[in-house]
Amino acid sequence: MEKRFVGKVAFVTGATTGIGQATAVRLASEGALVGVNQRPSDDPTETLRRIKDVGGEAFPVVADVRDPAQVVAMVQEVARRGGRLDYVVSNAAINPMMKWDETSIEDFDALSETNFRGTWLVCTEGAKQMVKEGHSGAICCTSSLSAHVGSPSQVAYCGTKAGVSMLAKALGAVLGEHGIRVNAVEPGAIDTPMSAYLLQDPPALKYYEDRIALHRVGKPEEMASVIAFLLSDDASYLTCTTVLADAGFIVNAEL
Amino acid sequence: MNDKRLNGKVAIVTGSSRGIGRAIAERFATEGAKVIVNWVGRERDAQSVVDTIEASGGEALSVRADVSSSADVKELVRATVDRFGRVDILVNNAGVMYTKSVLETTEENWDRTIDVNLKGAYLCAKEVAPIMLRQETGKIIMMSSNSGLYHPSAMRFTEYVTSKAGLNGLTKALALALGPHITVNAICPGWIKTAMVEDTDPEVERAILAETALRRWGTTDDVAGAAVFLASKEADFITGELLIVAGGRGMH
User: Fold this and answer.
1) Spatial distance between the Cα atoms of B140 and A180, rounded to a whole number of angstroms
2) What whole-number distance in Å separates Cα of residue B250 and Cα of residue B203?
3) A199 CB near a chain B CB, below 8 Å?
4) Fewer CB under 10 Å: which end of chain B, C or N?
5) Is A206 exposed, middle or buried, given 0-12, 13-18 or 19+ CB atoms closer than 10 A?
6) Would you say residue B251 has pLDDT above 80?
């Protein structure tokens, strides 16, 4: 396919596995120079190898999105190495299973600081850099189906994802005058390491496959294609939009 | 590797002699699709769309059909299959809007709006669905409106808004009924510069732009980009979704 991001510079948080990894590979395969964000403890080797395999260009950039100083440094590093910043994909998140009455303050803070505050930090710092550079750009957040439906072991997680979807809308409203579009994808059941606990549990997998209108779970690449669309010029009039990509999970109220 | 997103696909775009439908028809052809240019009153405009597509090396066929007539819709789909052998994409774009308030519109206005905007989409989807199910692949896209959503806000053109709200419900019900091989989604555009809204009051226009994040009207090409995405394999994991293409309107 035509390469839509030639000469552009992007970074993707949480890009060592899953949807972040697939997105980094997709953007690089379409010509973007991609900053592959990892936490200090993560290994970016596999993502960088896949990008090399598709003939793309990338570099690793370390930052724990819970740490404001590290986020600021990451944005500066990407803009310095790329000479500019066009696209931000705020994707890093955690999703530990825990019962509602066994969730500690520390558990809640870790979820909130990574998924919600981390998204706010990454998008805000990325946007400041674009405004400073004085050109248009696009931001995409990875939210979740969980912004709309509850789940017994993910109460706090669901709250953070609803927050992420609303952040995208509220940020989009203020960044429009700078030509910066902000949107979010809300993935349903996707086959990633984060969802392994669920999809390797046969009864849970069967529930999802039965309920989903397309009767299957998704691949990370299928979210990367949505994110690539939202960053591309084909989405030129999309901002403050959330795109539910759940293959028809929510829509099925017949079960 | 062919680099066109809709290469070899056969697409019906209802109401594509002008406006958003025309932009979608032309863009689909650019992306490699064979396009049925449907019209009901504007034969010359439709022919000019076909001419434009053919001049760029694409394939297109102009077919007259009133989508509110089941007999016409059957003919539309039959003509498509006769010429191109299949139907991969249906864009239910044909629509009418009476820019009057509920106290001024007539029962005929209501009937025509619901017949074209809502029943027409239902009839077209119903006619292509068996073909798409046999093919085990198909994409149906409704041209709805963000005025048919709970948020952003509605307009006072009662029949139109009601028809679009109905279209959103139809989208979700069809997504459920026609999976797993057919996806059904809607595009909910905001204020797009077309003939349909050419008589907008300048004061209303200023108010709309002030509450639109991107500070500009949408173009028909803006909507066509979203339609290409939903019609392509890039959106294979999306069904039952209402995609807002409104430049951030009403988000303040």
Assistant:
1) 30
2) 16
3) no
4) N
5) exposed
6) no
Residue B167 C-beta-side C-alpha neighbours within 13 Å: 39
Residues of chain B contacting residue A188, judged by C-beta atoms under 8 Å apart:
237
Which among B1, B228, B239 has CB closest to A247? B239
pLDDT in tens, B120-131: 999 999 999 999
Element containing residue A173 per DSSP (H, E)? helix A155-175
Of B249 and B36, the structure prediction assigns the larger pLDDT to: B36
Q: Which residues of A touch B4 (CB under 8 A)?
A: 1
Location of structure tokens 């390797």: A200
The shortest CB-CB distance from A241 to any of B215, B236, B244 is to B244
Over residues B39-68, the mean pLDDT reads 98
User: Is A112 assigned a catalytic role?
Assistant: no
Q: Under 8 Å CB-to-CB from A203, ≥6 apart: which residues?
A: none
Task: Report the alpha-carbon distance of residue B251 to residue A171 in Å, rounded.
Answer: 10
| Interface touch A234/B240, C-beta < 8 Å | no
Query: Which positions of chain A have pLDDT values less than 70?
Result: 255
What pLDDT does residue B1 have?
43
Per the confidence metrics, is the pTM higher than 0.90? yes
From A78, A173, A166, A167, select the one nearest A130 (Cα to Cα). Answer: A78
